[in-house]
Amino acid sequence: MKAWERAAVVTILLGVWGLCLFRFDAVPPGTIHDEVRNYLNLQLIAEGDIRALYPFGGGREALFLFVQYGAVQLFGNNLLAMRLPAIIFAMAGVSGLYVLVRRLFGIPAALFAAVAMGGSFWFVLFARLATRENALPTLALLTAYAYLRTVEEQRPALWLYALCGVLLGATLYTYPAGLTFPVVIAGWLLAIALSHRKQIEGKVSGLAGSLLLAGIIAVPLIMAWATPQATQRAETLAGPLEALREGDPGPVLENIPQLALMFTVRGDYGSEFNNPDQPLVPTAPMAAAFYLGVAALCIGLIRGPDRRGPALVLLWIILLLVPVIVTQRPAVPHRTIGIQPMVFILPALAFAFLWDRLTSITARTVLVGAALVTLGLHVGHAAHAYFVTWANNPVVRFLYQNDYRVFAADLAAEAALPPSALGGLTPGPMDISTMTLLMADDAAARRLHPFDPRNSLLVPPDGTILIPDFVTLHPALTPWVSTASEGAAYRLYMGEWEWSEPLAVWPDRIELHEVVWGETIVTRWMIQGGASQELRIFFHVTDEAGTILAQSDVLGAPAPYWHAGDMLLQAHTLTLPDQRPLYANIGLYDPVTGSRLPAREAEFVRLLLAD
What we know:
Layout lengths: L2 H19 L11 H14 L6 E2 L5 E2 H14 L3 H27 L1 H12 L2 H7 L7 H18 L5 H14 L9 H15 L1 H4 L3 H22 L6 H6 L1 H7 L4 H12 L22 H20 L4 H18 L14 H18 L3 H30 L3 H6 L2 H11 L8 E3 L5 H10 L3 H5 L2 E3 L4 E4 L4 E5 L12 E6 L3 E6 L8 E3 L3 E7 L4 E7 L8 E7 L5 E7 L12 E6 L10 E7 L15 E4 L3
């Protein structure tokens, strides 16, 4: 590698590094649930639970989580540590793309492709998230490069075959869209055998051995995917596949135009990983180069002296779209992440094709200028689309829980954190883990008392209650609070305490103190201590004979996060029949086993309904 090329590569990598870290504390504007689920999976690893697929998130492959666990062990429970592996995979992906394209298509194409991918919207987005998507293209690129080196070597060493097998097997532990990648490699080796037979001669057994090694490595993953609990999430997304199995190709056929349009016309409509409807190649000059690259690819396949590169690009795009085409919302960026390196190779092929056919210095200078303008517009659009448009989208700020980020920053400015109740849509492990990642003090995050304001209210001993602006406190619960302050992202309340003699007591757990009748019935409880399992409150409206006429089984404050001294108010929404008298049977039960918790006096308390 000459000095100028080395300088160009270093400049590209530094630019990509800058895009990965720029405004890292503000964009994304918080943390999304996919990142929090990864954190919950890391807790299983910390307990010594080693497996191929982890449960939180409906089956998460292990490779990225293992790397992430190492980062958290080194740098602590925070978003920087959680997201650092994604940045590392992203940088390795750009490097892998460069060396692969350089070997297959030459230096001009490699430089163009590295900038195009490293400066693309989705590359930057996933490089800054604590999720596993970037691991797939990176491992796939490194695997393809290892196989290319192997077939080009006169006598490859045994370790090179082994490396190919290990990398290919590891690719399967990245993301479901990569499940067809071994077929890509096998098909590519076959294409090389047909068009460049001498490169395969004497290596068939070694290459077959590498594929076998990859299969052996994949056995734990295959066994894990055979478990119904592990595939539950995949089954919810595979509606088109199920329809195809039943003889209805309609949903799959409907996905084809969506995938065709996503390249340059219209992408996915969601906001979690995209600006709605933004295609993979959103700028006109890059889109034009993309289609010129498709033409160059076809020419290379038909008449090119070296068909290895075009064959790889074609097989890669087609076969990695197979798992996507049989799912719902096929154009979602994280499901098509595997093909994105090849997408940005295509405009690079157009540039390389013209470079090879232009001989004059003037023509090549004009071409370089056009390439720089094309890349500049591409990177500039991606930066503005990500750091400005996407980051300030109200839907994005909701999905990434910006209110919690603001609250965590405000808490960090406080000298001491009082016990505070935290209202949210996912009370329990999700909300507490979110705050753990956003706050510098893990112990302070664990002291928060989570509840769902839509149906409950938790008042800690000091009375401080925080409810983000994205959720509203149930109207029936407002008489027990007063507004302390209102900010741009959340509201602070102070709870009001009143106690009476308990109506029923569940020893060492909770006491029922009051039932407030109204359009919505409210039960008021005093917590004595935490519980090791989830619990629910049952509120059964019965006739005099005990026949259940209406019921509410709910608990908006997860029992494992109870703190002694908290007041809990639970709203019960039900339709009461007109007949009288009516009675209420009130108690607690375990939703997993269905067994009721015995109270001090009886299994439940029975009260006459007030008019």
